[in-house]
Amino acid sequence: MRTLYIDCGMGAAGDMLTAALLELLPEPDAFIEKLNTLGIPGVEYICEPSVKCGIRGTHVSVRVHGVEEGDEARHHDRAHGHDHGYHHHSGLSDVEHILSHLSLSDKVRGDALAVYGLIAEAESHVHGVPVTEIHFHEVGTLDAIADVTAVCLLIDELAPDEVVVSPIHVGSGQVRCAHGILPVPAPATAHILQGVPIYGGQIAGELCTPTGAALLRHFAARFGPMPVMRTESIGYGMGKKDFPVANCVRALLGETADGGDMVAELSCNVDDMTGEDIGFAMERLFEGGALEVYTVPVGMKKNRPGTLLCVLCAPADREKMVELLFRHTTTIGLRETAYHRYTLERRTETRETPLGPVRIKKTAGYGVCREKAEHDDLARLASENGLSLAEVRRRIEWT
What we know:
Helix content is about 30%, strand content about 35%.
């Protein structure tokens, strides 16, 4: 599986993500030329080498009407060399209008709009006003559109099967913005990163911006440690400011183990639900996309017999499963464990038999090849023909 891992040990901002992903391309200069022909009004992308703590990387800046970032206040944080506050405000409709006129595929345009949707929803929540009334003091200017568009294009160009993001270092202290002095992470950033593993530290400043947070939230299939992978290329996207720690986002592109992927297991113990209620909950979880749901009888405190309910799901479906578990069970707390799993390739084919069509499940991989008739089809044929399952199996045996 082609996997992109993004290391956010020094947070993330749009320009740093752009630079890190740009370094993964074989011809970054050609891609910069492509960015400069997109048609973002008055925008010019500039790529230059940068060194932090002895590590060579890339810094990408944006000029808007000839003004380079850092010369005029931008939406990123001071820790990355950018100031909060604006002379120009714009709403979500203005952003949508600009994106609709750029030379982008429908997929890339949809990704960019989705990222702005996350930001708009966060700003709406923080300020207590409808999304239509949000003015992007910190993320709606042309240079922010440039950052979001560039990252969406780069992800599309790299085409990873999965994007994995590390826990995000958000910084500490306070940051000055258009509304005054705010705690780090800024309220909009904190809202976007709800449910995502984040941490602070000794570095004072805002390390993760709303733009960086929204881009990571949109593209990440999961958050966690770097998976086992054969790395093909590594990119370093540098911020402007210097710290004792290299101020960069690191991106690694490579192949993870064949057939291996991550699953999340959510579990809870209940001792006050009937068998019927547990069965109903299991059905809702399967309908919601659970990969597997199973129960185990357990002994609980006060010598009460109880049930351990376990749900396996894709990491991207974790939040949905959490909501369904709390809605359809009586539990007041859940546990989560991440597992790396290996699976055989699976496919289904239909075969004609003397008794009728039967679906055959075929699995292969790791030197193994198996096939098995679908039980529901065998049961149907047994019922239709007044036979036992064993008799059906004998009559439809194939060589």
